[in-house]
From TrEMBL:
It comes from Lysinibacillus pakistanensis. Residues 25-302 form the D-isomer specific 2-hydroxyacid dehydrogenase catalytic domain. InterPro entries: D-isomer_2_OHA_DH_cat_dom, D-isomer_DH_CS, D-isomer_DH_NAD-bd, NAD(P)-bd_dom_sf. Belongs to the D-isomer specific 2-hydroxyacid dehydrogenase family. CDD domains: 2-Hacid_dh_1 (cd05300). Transmembrane segments: none annotated. The keyword NADP does not apply. Keywords: NAD, Oxidoreductase. This is D-2-hydroxyacid dehydrogenase.
Length: 314
């Protein structure tokens, strides 16, 4: 059994992994090598180094473990044609991403960006426009591990949570539920609108200008899912027209965001360069998911955790 990592875990994470599975040949490299890809039975990757061309060399590959939640950059058709099983680290992002979202919300509510600017100017002023998070209402689009975790944290702050998914089916830490078709009725109630939706055909440009027009004028809009949720021209138009109060954006239709893009300079926009999931414990948590699946795989089992359906995109 030859397992090829296209990234190198820290020694304190790598060495225990090798010791725990002494009969496995582990190869650790930074970046993808065609020679190693040809020999690998299992590939462990962040999912951005595979393409249709190099998949032609993956003749022995039977399982791809993706140390990421999204697979939109992977050659899905080529993988499906070869009947390669794919699993990922779904759920790993819930702690850092929920903390990132909560940090941004509290920063806006308690006027921290303004306070930091005053400090730079050495200006003593008490004119901060501060408000409270308690008794707010949050509408959360996408109710997997991340959406449920941010719902749990917000409820602890006294926030009413409305969950939104395709079916409207009940989800953890949501006080009320709506489906996509009910967004126009739910958006006017929300002080905070958070999207953690995956990239699918159904979520592409789900939000249109009419949706932003019914939001509260002081609402906070946060996109931490995928940039396909809304066309950037539409989003920019809604912000410029003052349809809502603040935007916190971790994802964009085109990444990286161009240096001359107007979103960089708008005073009520926070650009987070797709880093809300980053954490010093990221690889540690990935391996906590990988190891039990590897044990199953070595026993000949295929019911691994987080097996993905590439035809659906998640």
């Amino acid at each position: 059994m030859r397992i090829y990592f296209t990234f190198e875990p820290r020694p304190d994470l790598r060495d225990p992994l090798v010791a725990e599975f002494p009969h496995v040949d582990f190869i650790f490299e930074t970046g993808l090598s065609i020679d190693e890809l040809q020999r690998a039975d299992v590939l462990v990757t962040y999912g951005e180094d595979l393409n249709n061309e190099n998949m032609n060399y993956a003749t022995n590959l039977k399982w791809i473990f993706v140390a990421s939640a999204g697979i939109e950059k992977m050659p899905a058709q080529a993988i499906m044609e070869r009947n390669i099983l794919v699993s990922n680290v779904r759920g790993i992002h819930k702690t850092p991403m929920a903390e990132s979202m909560l940090a941004h919300i509290l920063a806006i509510k308690r006027a921290l960006p303004w306070i930091y600017e005053q400090q730079k100017k050495s200006e003593w002023s008490k004119k901060a426009k501060q408000s409270e998070l308690r008794d707010s209402t949050a509408l959360i689009l996408g109710l997997g591990a991340i959406g449920s975790e941010v719902g749990r944290l917000l409820q602890a702050f006294g926030v009413t949570t409305i969950g939104c998914n395709r079916s409207g089916k009940e989800a953890a830490y949501m006080d009320n539920m709506v489906c996509f078709d009910q967004l126009m009725e739910a958006l006017p109630k929300a002080d905070i609108v958070i999207s953690v939706l995956p990239k699918t055909d159904e979520t592409t440009h789900l939000l249109k200008l009419e949706h932003f027009k019914v939001m509260k004028s002081n609402a906070i809009f946060m996109n931490f899912g995928r940039g396909n949720l809304v066309e950037e021209d539409t989003l920019n138009q809604a912000i410029q027209a003052g349809e809502f109060g603040y935007a916190v954006l971790d994802v964009f239709e085109q990444e990286p965001l161009a240096a001359d893009h107007p979103l960089w300079s708008l005073p009520n926009v926070i650009v987070s360069p797709h880093i809300s999931s980053h954490s010093s414990r990221y690889v540690e948590r990935s391996l906590e998911i990988f190891k039990p699946s590897l044990e199953k795989w070595l026993r000949g089992e295929k019911d691994l955790d987080n097996v993905m359906d590439l035809s659906r995109g998640y």
